[in-house]
Write a structure and sequence with these properties.
Length: 813
């Protein structure tokens, strides 16, 4: 069926089905029931839904297995039945499809989050996805459809499981929020680069509002990528009319949008929440027989963090910072040996502030468990810094530990052209969707002539392609010879860079500073050599970001090679620089750029520690403050609170995303756990009492849990009642705890009316509590309709809104 689907995609637009939950509810599914078990217990009802979509024109119907992974089924006590449940649901879909449609196994999120937002790990999620996918394949699924993923880290694991555990083609859909990013901060292009490296047949987006909201996302992916694109919009944004949730987009309107989505580049078009067979029939009618847009061209190599991409589409536009390497750096080596990752984070942050857009990470210290150290370092760096990383090791065990921990698309540094290395490193790059750096080293060492280095590079690229990697997955390092020892060979490297760039069309990397080893005034040689290499096609130099002369060369080359358009970055860097006098002796170049640091006073340092999420170092700062006679409450009010406020403001400006905000919250939590006993009776900091709950019938609690963490770290006393909580339980808790605020969450449109019950109960009991509502399906209009006191769109907004409500609450007392 993989060949059948791909052949069909080459011929015309392919039609997916629509919503499942909407129709199950019409068949009697109640809030809080397990949809998967309901489908097994009511097989005829499920068969009728599938058949209706087939008759409406769906080329692919999706099994009722969206929440069929063991993690989600565990919420209903059904984890042990995961394989059985998934297999039976696929068999039901298979019966409905017959020979008229293909069956896609629908795979949804586990409901678990990875650090720093949760405590899940790679192996747990991989196991859950692999078990589910194997069961679906064995029961007759033709392909896999991964849907509604809010975290690129979880999507990455699901794609890895699909490739490793099955032989089925995959469609991969992310879900984006208002503002065009996922809940955890990933933009559409970064999501595309990460997903496509794991080779799904098609990728795209679903849910995320209506077709109007998804249209620009598909347009962007089409302009910058070459994949088949899939899209499943909701039938508009839900509204509550009376006690009924209504999706406003009628079939005719969805059909019009389907044509626009096709023109935007979509190859596979279906629908999501609120849609019905009538919507799909209208869409299929207008799309029937239409050929999709031609697929775009392959893009340049891209390296990605969770929320940023570095695309190597212009020589010298980016560089790798080399300073996270313990070689000849005793303090860094000792920090790695001690497990003090804050030292690495601090060094990485300084490099990023000086312009490094990728960081090389090496933890090769003798006598340590290098794989564990690398995993810890990768996790700490990516949680604190929004920057792609380069995994610097040749040990497959170390590399795989890092790849499991990594979120995004890293660069493996490195493999050589030796078969032993190629056979162990290339499969890892393929499995985990990483790029790989190939060193021009053969079984006989580093070749001297440029032509032989080119041949080594050609061999590496050919082996990578044979392994299933794409050409943009491979970068080549032609290796620098030192001028002090092998002066005649220095230019052979420059020649080889140009040959590789033009002959193989792959990106090039070079550790430039090796050229000057053993010679005086190294910065002069390094910067000159860098300029020559950039002119000859070097894409990604590895250099010391604190070397001002190197940065001068990079900035100048970017202007002269037209990658710094209108010289905007160059002007920003040098606009205040005074011209040197012609007769004056050249000024000494500093070895390192000065990086602004927090003021020496304890309040500024505490502010800085919270803002940067330094949980490891914040207690020692508080101890220093206490030893120096600072009042505990002063450190809270003048250091900790301004720090978390600054992090929140950075989140609002989209300079921080959810992982960085949660790191700051964790630092605040660590600080308060230490300082609270020193504040005296009452803790000295009471922002108010909040009851939090996901309403009855709704088992989604990720967003609510994040709100709880944030509010606790702003001084609120949070009583979290959990998920699927009846209105009466919420009201009794609010009365018992004398709650100032009741915070309600819902992710399902069918459970939104339960919020109205709580609001009505507050009014009936004449409770003084104010009610705040939130969740992906909610908006201000709905909050006003049910007479809630406030609505918040995300965790940061919930804190700000709660603070405003408390002012209102206190003003009413």
């Amino acid at each position: 069926m993989a060949r059948d689907l791909e052949s069909l995609l080459k011929e015309r637009v392919v039609i997916l089905d629509g919503a499942m939950g909407t129709l199950l509810q019409r068949c009697g599914l109640l809030p809080g029931q397990c949809p998967e078990l309901f489908g097994i217990e009511r097989p005829e009802a499920l068969l009728d839904i599938h058949r209706a979509y087939v008759e409406a024109g769906s080329d692919i119907i999706q099994s009722n297995t969206f929440g069929g992974n063991a993690c989600k089924l565990a919420e209903y006590g059904l984890a042990e039945r995961a394989a059985e449940i998934n297999a039976e649901l696929v068999r039901i879909a298979r019966r409905a499809a017959g020979d008229k449609a293909m069956v896609a196994a629908s795979i949804g999120p586990t409901g678990r989050l990875l650090p720093p937002m949760g405590d899940a790990d790679f192996d747990t999620l991989y196991t859950a996805f692999a078990e589910q996918m194997r069961g679906c394949e064995a029961a007759g699924a033709d392909l896999i459809s991964i849907e509604t993923m809010t975290d690129i880290a979880e999507m990455r694991i699901a794609l890895i499981a699909a490739r490793q555990a099955t032989r089925l083609p995959v469609i991969a859909h992310m879900t984006f929020e208002n503002g065009g990013r996922t809940m955890t901060g990933t933009d559409p292009l970064t999501a595309m680069y990460v997903m496509e490296a794991l080779r799904p047949l098609a990728l795209g987006a679903n849910c995320s509002g209506g077709a109007q909201e998804l249209l620009p996302i598909i347009e962007q992916m089409y302009r910058h990528g070459s994949n088949y694109l899939s899209v499943e919009p909701n039938a508009g944004l839900p509204r509550l009319i009376g006690d009924e949730t209504v999706f406003p987009d009628e079939p005719e309107l969805m059909a019009q949008y389907a044509l626009r989505l096709k023109e935007a580049g979509a190859n596979i078009i279906g629908a999501c929440c609120g849609s019905t067979p009538e919507h799909i029939q209208a869409m299929a009618t207008v799309l029937r027989g239409l050929k999709a847009q031609e697929r775009g061209r392959e893009h340049a190599p891209a390296l990605c963090s969770r929320s940023r991409s570095v695309v190597l589409d212009s020589p010298g536009a980016h560089f790798i910072g080399e300073r996270l390497n313990p070689t000849a750096r005793k303090m860094l080596a000792q920090a790695i040996r001690n497990g003090d990752m804050e030292v690495l984070v601090r060094e990485g942050r300084r490099q990023a502030e000086c312009g490094a857009e990728v960081l090389d990470v090496n933890v090769g210290v003798p006598g340590i468990h290098e794989a564990a150290a690398m995993e810890t370092a990768i996790t700490a760096l990516q949680n604190a810094l929004d920057i792609p990383l380069c995994i610097d090791s040749t040990d497959p065990v170390v590399i795989e530990a890092a790849l499991k921990a990594y979120v995004g698309r890293p660069l493996i540094n490195s493999t050589t052209g030796e078969e032993k290395q190629l056979s162990s490193i290339l499969p890892l790059a393929k499995r985990y969707g990483a790029a790989v750096l190939g060193l021009c080293i053969t079984e006989d060492g580093i070749p001297a002539p440029a032509a032989e280095r080119y041949a080594a590079a050609e061999h590496i690229v050919a082996r990578a392609e044979a392994e299933g990697l794409r050409r943009q997955d491979v970068l080549i390092d032609c290796l620098v010879k030192t001028a002090s020892a092998e002066q005649a060979l220095v230019m052979e490297t420059i020649k080889a860079v140009g040959m590789v760039k033009t002959g193989l069309g792959v990106a090039t990397v070079l550790g430039v500073s090796n050229v000057s080893h053993g010679l005086p005034a190294r910065d002069i040689l390094n910067s000159t050599y860098l300029t020559m290499a950039l002119y000859n096609g070097l894409d990604l130099p590895i250099l010391n970001p604190f070397d001002e002369r190197m940065l001068d060369s990079v900035r100048a080359c970017r202007v002269l090679m037209d990658s710094d358009r209108n010289a905007l970055n160059y002007i920003a860097a040098y606009k205040d620089r005074a011209p040197a006098a012609a007769s004056a002796a050249p000024a000494a170049q500093p070895a390192a750029a000065s990086v602004p640091a927090p003021s020496d006073d304890i309040f500024s340092r505490l502010h800085h520690a919270v803002y940067q999420g330094n949980s490891d170092g914040i207690v020692s700062l508080l101890e220093q403050g206490l030893a120096g006679g600072e009042a505990p409450l002063d450190m809270v009010n003048r250091g900790l609170i301004p720090g978390i406020e600054a992090a929140g403001e950075a989140y609002e400006r989209k300079q921080y995303f959810l992982p960085q905000l949660m790191m700051a919250a964790e630092a605040m939590k660590t600080a308060f756990a230490f300082i609270r006993p020193h504040l005296g009776e009452g803790g000295g900091y009471d922002a108010g009492t909040v009851i939090l709950a996901t309403v009855e019938g709704d088992i989604h609690d990720i967003g609510k849990n994040i709100v709880a963490v944030m509010m606790e770290n702003y001084g609120f006393k949070v009583i979290d009642l959990g998920k699927d909580v009846p209105a009466a339980v919420i009201l009794e808790a609010a009365q018992r705890e004398q709650a100032d605020i009741i915070g309600l969450s819902a992710l399902m449109t069918t459970t939104m009316p339960r919020m109205k019950e709580v609001v009505a109960g507050v009014q009936a009991r004449q409770l003084p509590s104010l009610v705040m509502v939130g969740g992906a399906v909610l908006n201000q209009e709905y909050a006003d309709l049910i007479q809630a006191d406030a609505y918040s769109s995300d965790a940061r907004a919930a804190v700000v809104t709660a603070q405003k409500l408390m002012k209102q609450f206190m003003g009413g007392k």
